[in-house]
Amino acid sequence: MLERFTLIPGTMAPPVLWYGTTLFVTGLICLVLALQIFLFLRQSPGAIALGLLLVALSWWDITYALYWIDAPAPNAQFWVDVTYVGVVSAPTLVFIFAIQISGLFETSWLLRKPFWFVMAIEPIVTLIALWTDPWHNLFFAGLRANYQGVILRGGLLFWSNVIYSYLLLLLSVIILVVGYARASGIFRKQLLMVLLSFAITWANSILFVAGLNPLPGADNTPFAFSIASALFAYALFRYRLLDVAPIARSVVIEQMKDGVLVLDANNRIVDINPAGKVWLPQAEIGVSLDRLRDQLPATLQQMPLDRDQRVEVMLEPSGRVLDIQVTQIYDQRRRLIGRLIVWREITEFKRLQAQLQRLANYDPLTGVYNRREFIRLANSELARAQRYQHALSLVLIDIDHFKIINDQFGHHTGDEALICFAASWMAEKRTHDIFARWGGEEFILLLPETDQHHARQLVERVRDKMLTKPMVAGNNRLIIKFSAGISAYTGSETFEQLAQRADLALYQAKQQGRNQTMIAELPQCEKAEPEQGQRSVH
């Protein structure tokens, strides 16, 4: 075999077994990492670019190792020329990997396959120029020495590739730095490891240009890239570099179901997501929101935007409900730079909320107030009666022999009887009277501004209608009879005391034969007092 070098003191000449072996081993490591990525992580953002980068580095290492162990070749330059497949591919793949892993371009055309084909043009042209140089002399320009282990000089196409490659690497670093500044948590640590990897390759380039190459006559760049790949591998296993990938805020906002509108300090539209365009189809970047006010529902046109707030707005006449949140955006000096408006439709939520509220406050069978809500409303009326010295009466009602209805006609008929019974009372009471199901077949009625005598007149009026007009429950016509106890508010007792006296009167009505009304006696301390003038609207 031809001698590859005219030996110069302090330089290396093939074969250098330790150097070639080291390169070969690092090339195999890169190849194993690439295979692992292709087999297990290929669906992750940046995985294909990183896998191809590791394949390119593996090619670079192994072919350069063959040169340094003096493997058989057609000519002295063959293995060095072959390494250029990895040399020209690495910067391009680094650039693509940086774009994908930074999380800055999730919706960009830069991530689509046509961009990959465009990026492949320069490496392919460079390789063709290198391998066809004897025909045109545009790559080496006659400056290449025989048996040269590293290409340091050349013509126009050589330097074009050098400048292009370093520009790609510089852009890659800039992209990663911006991504690192915006990232947080584990994603920030991932990008830090990638940046450290690039720092090694840049440090190597500086040493090489400064003439401080520790391997005279050889290109130590494959080592630098291989060390970088080792850091990539560390990031893969330590920080889950590819299977825990960052999701850019832009992607999240684009896919949000909530409308998102970003304004500047002058209320000009800076950004709006697709969900926002549904509500503001005429919204365009740079247009003032004030110009679109007439497109908004009337309830929103006068809504102030100069303060943080969260409001629920019902849109007429559709009845749809929006939850709108306005947030002022400030810079680091606390200067107002814009506003963020986020809204979502909560019509269905409000409907369900109303249903839950009704279930919480109303008896599900009869549709009247339940016991808990009645007590709340009754305490409020007692406080008002005490404050204004108004009369107030409480009526406790119990259907007579209701068990017989259930036993004779069945529980379904019994339920219908309860519904009809409650409906009869609701038809007779005033709007501000409070009627509720107290429990089982017991009902309760609160009559504000009504004394016990007028309360009794109402009860007997309802009784007469029930006796003269049978209720239709299923296929049965029923005459419902009931007993009632009335207690008049004395102005000082609690609701529990008032209800206890009405319950005692109801018990007396049942004891005396049912189907009648009894008025509770006043407490002993009240009997000696003269009756106060009382009003009634019954």
Overview of this structure, please?
The chain is an alpha+beta fold and 538 residues long. It has three domains: 17-238, Up-down Bundle (Rhopdopsin 7-helix transmembrane proteins), CATH 1.20.1070; 256-350, Beta-Lactamase (2-Layer Sandwich); 362-527, Alpha-Beta Plaits (2-Layer Sandwich). It has helices spanning 17-40, 47-68, 78-102, 113-131, 133-136, 156-182, 185-209, 221-238, 249-255, 274-279, 298-301, 347-361, 371-388, 402-409, 411-428, 452-468, 495-511, 524-527, and strands spanning 259-264, 269-272, 309-315, 320-330, 336-345, 392-399, 434-439, 442-448, 471-473, 476-478, 482-488, 517-519. It has a five-stranded antiparallel sheet with strand order 2-1-5-4-3. A hairpin with a 4-residue loop joins strand 3 and strand 4. Helix 1 (17-40) runs parallel beside helix 8, helix 2 (47-68) packs antiparallel against helix 8 and helix 14 (402-409) crosses helix 15 (411-428). The model is unreliable at 1-10 and 530-538 (pLDDT under 50).
